[in-house]
Every structure is written in C-alpha cells, then in structure tokens.
Amino acid sequence: MPINAEYRGPADLPKVIPVFPLPGALLLPRGQMPLNIFEPRYLQMVDDAFRDGHRLIGMIQPDVTHSQSNERPALFKVGCVGRITQLAESGDGRYILELTGVARFRILDEKTVLTPYRQCQVDFSPFLDDFIARKGEEEVDRKALLEALTQFLKANQLKVDWDGIESAPNEALVNALAMMSPYGPAEKQALLEAPNLKTRAEILIAVTEMDLAKKQTSGDPPLQ
C-alpha cells in the first residue's frame, strides 16, 4: 500500500520509537499488518503516535527464552517499524488498524519512560536496502517458492487466489507469504532478519519443506 509519508533513509525516522511486543507477529517493509488494539497501554500508544504526528509503531517479538518476566519480557534485537495507514474505532473501545511496514531496526537501548508502553532507541542503518522498494527481486527463485507453496497448500487442503499470486511482484509475494506463514517465533525472526529478499525466500522454502517432511513422518493432520 502506498503511504503519504516518504521515507528515503534513517534520517527520515525518529531515533526513539514506541514498540509493541507481540509473539509470532512479523511485519516486513511495505507489508500490511492488521492489528486489533484493546489493551489500555496500547490504545494510548496509538493516540500518542497520532498526536506526535509520526504515526509509527515498532513491531517486535518478545524473546521468551531470555525473559524473566511475563509482564516485561526481553525483546529480540531486530524488529520492523510500521506506519498506521488505516484506523477504525470499533465502538466498544478498540482500535482496528493496519500498519504498513517501513524498515527494520536494531534496538540500541530501551528507554526509561513514563508511558505505560515501552520505547526504544533504535538504529535503522543496518537495513538501508529496506528503503529501496523491490530491491533484489530478480535474485528470488520464484519457481521454487511457488512449488513449495503448492505443496504446502496441497498438504493442508487449502486454496488461494492464484491470479493474485501470479500477478504479485517478487517482493510482495515473498514478504506476504513470510508474514502469513504459520511458523513459530524463531522461524519468524529468521525470516525478519534475513539479509536480503533472496535469502528470505530461501529460508521460507526450507522451513516449509522441513514442516511438510515432519508432518509426513508424524502423520499430523492438515491445518484447519
């Protein structure tokens, strides 16, 4: 989805951003993520993002393997910031919004703040290619990706809009499939931290093939 704000590089983004820890949530540049916001602290985060004018939220996964507190879990070091591009009020106190991914970031430091939500000082400079739309598309093995997708759909008795898939550019296809994939936090983090689009596609293919092989061996039922 095109967005009104133009982000040409790290200088166009704030150095401190609010972060929303959410396990299994994967946002990638130019991808769209729907969110149902109902906790008071995150409702305030959305209000503050609009009041401050930047409309940015950093999506990041909790690192449960290194956490000592469920209330304030440790965070993975890499996340992705998104801009709120759609918002609706539900009528029962919730916000239904959509984030459009801008760029990945690395956490430098978590700030001590008075807000009920967490804020981090971040660095976007390791991910300069995120600011270039469709960077590295020509290196993606689209045929192998679609073959893995076909096998996954067949094994899980699922159907998709093949016309939409066939017409999607490689960046949109790889990132959408990665974001929608049903894998765990570790796999999602690996997809997020992939250095380029080609590697992300290769990780997605490998994880899918391992998942299919595991299900064939164990006899697990298909996804419902």
UniProtKB/TrEMBL annotation:
Domain Lon N-terminal: 17-212
Pfam families associated with the record: LON_substr_bdg (PF02190)
PROSITE patterns: LON_N (PS51787)
Source organism, top-level taxon: Bacteria
UniProt cross-references to InterPro entries, sorted A to Z: Lon_prtase_N (IPR003111), Lon_prtase_N_sf (IPR046336), PUA-like_sf (IPR015947)
Name assigned to this protein: Lon N-terminal domain-containing protein
